[in-house]
Every structure is written in structure tokens, then in C-alpha cells.
Amino acid sequence: MLTTADNRTHNAEDTAAELRSAGEIVTIVADRSDAYHDVALHWAILAMLLTVAIAGLLPSSSYDQIALVVGGWGEADQRGRMMALLLGAMILAFLIVRGLLALRFLRNRLIPHRTAGRRVRRRAIELFRAVGQGRTTGRTAVLLYLSLAERRAELVVDESIHARVEHSAWTAAMGTLIEAVRHGRAGDGMVAAIGAIGDVLAIHCPRSDDDRNELPDRVITL
Fold it and tell me: What are the percentages of helix, strand and coil residues in the chain, rounded to 5?
């Protein structure tokens, strides 16, 4: 998370950026956007299915050796015991993988990039609807959302700004933030991103004489 000094610097930059435009910038920093328990479940199911595939690829001599260990008098009896062993192996594979992926650092490494991207974007939109959408007079709210575990950031803008500003205008600001986060400088990245967003807003959403501060300038941490 951000340090106290980072928060103070961010708040000052946020206030300065808003003084240059009619935009209202809200910053939210979250530890993660999702627990990804379903991802762990999917990997565990895959391990279980791979157990069946591996069993199907074993040579017949392996089954003969297993039959000797399992025992049994007849062929039918051996088949039944083989099926029971296969089912047990599938359950064991599922439980082992599911147990390992209960560890967050392992689960994080197996989250598909597209899945992480979708979850972060979805969470950003949910938060924007809660704290920014429709809460400003001119529909000029901007949410800058950073999800630390995924090392991803999202920018969600209100209707008025979306109609005036091309998506490509935000590329530099978001690129600067992500690069800083990857190098462990989240605070610097947030400040630089806020400054760049303020520059874009100053051009496309100039400040009016009666403009007032409608949303908090502080960093919201989740």
C-alpha cells in the first residue's frame, strides 16, 4: 500500500489537478480485486481430469503390475478395483491441487492474464458506480483504480468526459502508473498519473468560475 508521505503527495497533486479543470478525480487503491477461488477450483478440476488422461496413456504392462499389487481372483474383480483406484487418484489429485492453491502466492501465479484483467476492470466499474457515477453536477467524475496484487490499473470516466476525450488520451498516464507499480514505486506512479490525467482534463474539460469540489481528494484504500 501507499505510505503516509505518498498519500500527502497524492492529495496535493489531486487538488492541483482539479484546480485546472472541471474534472473530479477519485483514487482507489485495493490490495486485490478478487479472491480467484474459482480459478483454484478450475485448476483442481483440470488436475483431476489429467489423472484420467495419464491413466489412459499407461502401457498395459503397468496395469498388470497394478493388478498384482491390488490382487483379486477374477478379471471382473480386478476391473472393479482398478476403477476404485482411479477414482481415488482423481480425488487425491483434486484435493492436493486445491489445497496448494489455497496459498495466495501460488494462486496468484496461476491466474490467467485475461481473467485478471476482466476482474480488475469489473471491480473498477463497480466502485465507480458506488463513489463517482452521477455524483458530480456536470458528470465529470474520473476514477483511477489500482489493484496491487494484479499490478493493474483502470481508469473509468463519467459520461461527459467519455464524450469529449478519446480513450488513447489516457494511455500515457496509465502506462506511467503501471510501470512505476512494477518497479515498486506505486506512490510515484499515482502522483504522475494524476498529473497526466489533470493535463488531459484541463484541455477537454476546462474549469468554470462556479466549479466546486464535489468528491474527496484523498486516496481511498481497500
Answer: 65, 10, 25
How far is the C-alpha of 83 from the C-alpha of 154, rounded, in Å? 50
For 50, the 3-state DSSP assignment is helix
pLDDT tens string, the chain, 222 residues long: the values are 555 655 656 666 666 666 677 777 888 888 888 888 999 999 999 999 998 888 777 666 565 555 555 555 455 556 667 777 778 888 999 999 999 998 888 888 888 889 988 999 999 888 888 887 766 666 778 888 888 888 888 888 887 777 777 777 777 778 877 887 777 777 777 778 888 888 887 777 777 666 666 666 677 788
* 98-103 own/partner pairs: CB under 8 Å, 24+ apart: 98/40, 98/41, 98/44, 101/39, 101/40, 101/43, 101/44, 102/40
Q: Which amino acid is at 96?
A: I
Q: Which helix (H) or strand (E) is 75 found in, with range?
A: helix 75-100
Cβ pair 85, 70 in contact under 8 A: yes
CB 91 within 8 A of CB 60: no
Q: Helices H, strands E: what count in the chain?
A: 9, 4
pTM of the model: 0.75
Query: Of 210, 222, 205, which Cα lies nearest the Cα of 25?
Result: 205
Residue of 17, 14, 24, 26 whose CA lies nearest to 140: 24
Cα distance from N-terminal residue to C-terminal residue, the chain: 10
Contact 28, 127 (CB under 8 A): yes
